[in-house]
Write a structure and sequence with these properties.
single chain, alpha+beta, eight-stranded mixed beta sheet, seven-stranded mixed beta sheet, 8 helices, about 25% helix
C-alpha cells in the first residue's frame, strides 16, 4: 500500500461523497453531510496545499486523510500532554476509509502512515479531534495509542454546537519507517516558504507540480548538485540546482526522491530528515511548484540514467562542491531570470541544511 499526496481534487471529492452516502450509521457517528462537512472548498484547499493524502493499492483508493504540519488556533487551549509550539505538532483531519474497504483495519494503516510521515517531517506529536458521538473512531484512536487530552463544545456546520474530544500521540524521533533517519537524532522542524515569481508577470496559474529535491552530502564531505545548461522559453542560462524532480502519480515522496537521485546522480541515498517545503511559481508556464526538500547522505554512486531531454536539452551533469562553493555558484548563476528564481528558492534551503548539519555535529570540514 502507498500513502501518496492527492493531486486530483475531483476524485477525492467523489471518494468522500461515497463515504458520506454509503457508510452505515455515519449520521450517528461522524455525522458527515457532504456539502456541510466535508465541503468542496475544504477539499480543494487541502489538495492545493499538498495536505490531502490517499492510501492506495494498485491504483485503487482505499482511504484518505488530511495531514497538516501544524495545529490551528482552536487547538491552543487544549491541555496537551506535552507543551509544543504550533509548528511542532501535526494534525489529522477527515480520516476516512472507503465503504468497500471498511472493517478491514485500514484506518490503523492510515494512522501509521501519517505518524511515519510526521516523524520524517520533524514533528513531535500527532493530534486530532473527533466528535464525542463517534464511538467507533474513538475506540480506534485509543487502541492505536492515542491519549484523550481534552473536550470542548464547538460549532460545526454539519452538527451545530456539539462536544469534540481531542486526542494526541507523542511521536518518537527516528520511529518512522518511511525512509528517514533512524539514529534518534533530534532535528529542527521543517521550514515552510512561499515565494512569488519576481521575474515574469502573473497572468494565471493552471496547474500544480509536486516536486521532491535533495541537499545531498557525500561521505567525502562534498555537496552534490546538478548543472543544467538550457536555451528555451526561459532564456539561455547556466544553472545549479538540487537534484530531484516530479512526483509520479501514485508515488510516495521518499520513493520519488530516491528514484530521482538514482536517475540524475546515480546515487543511492539515506534520507536524514526533511528540510522543508517551498512553494513558488513559474508564471511563464503558469505553474505552481510545491517543492519538498530533504537532507540526504549519499551511500554510493553508480551510473546515472538521464532522459534524452535531460541530456540533449538541459545538458544535465553532476556538480560536486563544498558548501561555500555552492553558495557562491547559486549567486553567480542568479544573473539570469530563471537562475534568480532558483537561487531565491534554494539558497534558504541550503543554509537550513547547513544549520541542521552543524546542529548534529556533522557539518563537513573545509577542503
Amino acid at each position: 500500500m502507498k500513502f501518496i499526496i492527492a493531486d486530483d481534487a475531483e476524485t477525492v471529492k467523489d471518494s468522500y461523497r461515497d463515504v458520506t452516502e454509503n457508510t452505515p450509521g455515519i449520521e450517528h457517528t461522524a455525522r458527515w453531510v457532504y456539502g456541510k462537512h466535508p465541503t468542496d472548498g475544504l477539499i480543494d484547499e487541502y489538495v492545493k496545499n499538498g495536505e490531502l493524502y490517499l492510501l492506495t493499492e494498485e491504483g485503487r483508493i482505499l482511504g484518505m486523510t488530511a495531514l497538516v504540519m501544524h495545529q490551528g488556533d482552536d487547538y491552543a487551549d487544549v491541555p496537551w500532554g506535552t507543551a509544543l509550539e504550533a509548528d511542532q505538532a501535526a494534525t489529522l483531519h477527515l480520516l476516512a476509509v472507503c465503504p468497500s474497504y471498511q472493517r478491514s483495519g485500514l484506518g490503523y494503516d492510515i494512522l501509521r502512515k501519517a505518524e511515519e510521515l510526521s516523524v520524517l517531517k520533524g514533528k513531535k506529536a500527532l493530534r486530532l479531534d473527533v466528535l464525542a458521538s463517534n464511538v467507533p473512531a474513538r475506540h480506534m484512536y485509543e487502541k492505536a495509542g492515542y491519549a484523550l487530552r481534552g473536550q470542548k463544545r464547538m460549532y460545526a456546520e454539519n452538527t451545530g454546537w456539539t462536544d469534540f474530544l481531542f486526542y494526541e500521540k507523542i511521536l518518537s524521533p527516528g520511529g518512522g519507517s518511511a525512509g528517514g533517519d533512524s539514529s534518534g537524532a533530534s532535528y529542527p522542524p521543517p521550514v515552510f516558504l512561499s515565494l512569488e515569481d519576481t521575474q515574469w508577470p502573473l497572468e494565471y496559474t493552471d496547474h500544480d507540480r509536486q516536486i521532491v529535491r535533495a541537499v545531498a552530502v557525500g561521505e567525502d564531505g562534498y555537496f552534490y548538485f546538478v548543472r543544467a545548461e538550457r536555451d528555451d522559453q526561459f532564456g539561455r542560462a547556466t544553472l545549479i540546482e538540487t537534484s530531484g524532480g516530479g512526483v509520479e502519480p501514485g508515488e510516495e515522496l521518499v520513493c520519488a526522491l530516491k528514484r530521482e537521485l538514482r536517475e540524475e546522480l546515480g546515487a543511492e541515498v539515506r534520507v536524514v530528515c526533511e528540510i522543508g517545503t517551498v512553494r513558488d511559481y513559474y508564471n511563464l508556464i503558469h505553474r505552481h511548484n510545491i517543492n519538498h526538500y530533504f537532507l540526504c547522505r549519499v551511500i554510493s554512486f553508480g551510473a546515472a540514467h538521464l532522459t534524452q531531454d535531460e541530456i540533449e536539452c538541459f545538458h544535465l551533469r553532476q556538480l560536486r562542491l563544498t558548501f561555500d562553493e555552492a553558495i557562491a555558484e547559486y549567486e553567480r548563476c542568479s544573473c539570469t531570470k530563471i537562475g534568480k528564481l532558483i537561487a531565491d528558492r534554494e539558497l534558504p534551503i541550503l543554509m537550513r541544511a547547513g544549520e541542521i548539519l552543524r546542529g548534529i555535529g556533522d557539518f563537513p570540514g573545509n577542503h
